Amino acid sequence: MTAGAAALTRLGIRLDRFELAAAFADLGVLVPIAVALIVKNGLQPTAVLLPAGLLYVAAALAFRLPIPVQPLKAFGAIAIAKGLGLDEIAAGALLMGAIFLVLGASGLIDLAARAFPKPVVRGVQLTVGILFLEIAWKLVREPPASFDLHGLSRGWLLALALLVLGSLALRRRVPVALVLAAVAVGVMAATAGDVAGGPSPLSFPSLDGATFWSAFTVLVLPQLPLTFANSCLATADAARSYFGERAARVRPGRLATSLGLANLFSGAIGGMPVCHGAGGLTAHYSHGARTAGAPLAIGGLLLAVALTLGAGLGGLLAAFPLPILAGLLAGAGLLHIGLLRDLRAPAHIALAVAIGVVGAEVHLAVALAGGLVAWWGAVALRR
């Protein structure tokens, strides 16, 4: 046994075939947003992947469980839709980093977590599951212009995505995600053409008060409730559900601190803002991850790609097969929705479903506020 393998064993980290398969299970969220930020918003590929890779490795060593790393989804969607440039995205990442570093390091977020009962948290997780299904559907019905469709019609994209989704039922016997990742790499290698080596040059932001204010109102405010509820509260809850006492390290405050530090770094180099996410934890877990081997593997791969292929990464990622992305994302969404099965009382189930639907169709902040008012109002009436 090598010194590195012995060190991982002492930390309780495995790198078997199921950990490696699960490492690729959450790419359905990361890749579309990363590609769009590179192709449409002009961010440098190395700056996009470097914060995600570093946070994956840091989270693996700190939490020793398959804690995921994802882009800030609402933040990214708004930035892509509005065509915002590097300066606004960097300012937003710096603000998110500072806010969550303070909330995590001060312990305020752990105190606030006590006000969120399980049905409310399950409602947030249902929202994320529904959003994952919606994103998967849009990937095949309204394919992003930045992706190479490899000559497939929308009907074929949908059929192949359903085939990928169905194949996930074999994940307990076969490392399906690893097979799918190998297929995706083969397709990209065959169709992307020559890829330039080395990292892409970093473009540092130019910031002023107006840029920070624009980023705060347009990007940060819509993202805050989602990051608080899903990245911190729901991820910690999902970790406890899956791993019990082994998840003692995974507290909302520690999650907030880690994503806060990562976003300060991301903003400083003009990169992609990142977070954790309960949906990503479900994706890694459902494909066989039981230790930090999966995040360590995918984090190491992202770092290697950022530093050795960053210069040609835009064309390479655009060739990633959409059916595989959509199928993996839909599978994670369905499994995430399944977290509701531990609710027993009809009133608790109804509250979680109401929060999930309103969160997906209106806004998570509205759903969260309504759910808390309903829960604590009922508690007050009983007293």
Shape: globular
Count of discrete structural domains:
1
Distance linking N and C termini? 61 Å
Biggest pleated sheet: 2 strands, antiparallel
Task: Average the pLDDT over all residues and give the rounded result.
Answer: 87
Structural class: mainly alpha
Total DSSP E strands: 2
Write the layout of secondary structure elements.
Layout: H1 3-10, H2 17-23, H3 27-39, H4 45-63, E1 70-71, H5 73-82, H6 86-106, H7 108-113, H8 118-141, H9 154-167, H10 176-191, H11 209-243, H12 252-268, E2 274-275, H13 278-286, H14 293-308, H15 313-318, H16 322-337, H17 346-361, H18 364-382
Antiparallel strand pairs: 1-2
Verbal overview:
There is one protein chain. This protein is mainly α and 383 residues long. The protein has one domain. Helix content is 71%, strand content 1%. The chain is built from 18 helices and two strands. It has helices at residues 3-10, 17-23, 27-39, 45-63, 73-82, 86-106, 108-113, 118-141, 154-167, 176-191, 209-243, 252-268, 278-286, 293-308, 313-318, 322-337, 346-361, 364-382; strands at 70-71, 274-275. A two-stranded antiparallel ribbon has the order 1-2. Helix 2 (17-23) crosses helix 14, helix 8 (118-141) crosses helix 17 (346-361) and helix 13 crosses helix 16 (322-337). It is globular and about 70 Å long. The mean pLDDT is 87.
